[in-house]
Write a structure and sequence with these properties.
Length: 81
């Protein structure tokens, strides 16, 4: 009798497993600095987004300004030079 109960429980669980509702996953927000409705682009394939495509198909690269120049080296002349 217990085998029948176990079998019916397992069959019922398998039948109801197909009815499980699948959750909708919300889209991730766009990264800072991107244009809403655009598509991220990784043109060099290194895994880092380096620009984006707008809806009209134009590529816009991200521009990072160059770092500031280093401070001048201390001069060799003077009181301690």
């Amino acid at each position: 009798m217990q085998i029948k109960t176990l079998f019916l429980t397992a069959a019922g669980g398998l039948a109801l497993a197909g009815c499980a509702a699948k959750e909708e996953v919300a889209a991730a927000p766009p990264p800072p600095g991107s244009v809403p409705g655009s598509t991220a682009a990784d043109r060099d394939g290194d895994g880092i987004v380096d620009g984006y495509y707008t809806s009209d198909g134009v590529y816009h690269p991200y521009y990072t300004p160059p770092p500031p120049p280093p401070p001048p080296a201390p001069s060799g002349t003077g009181e301690r030079g």
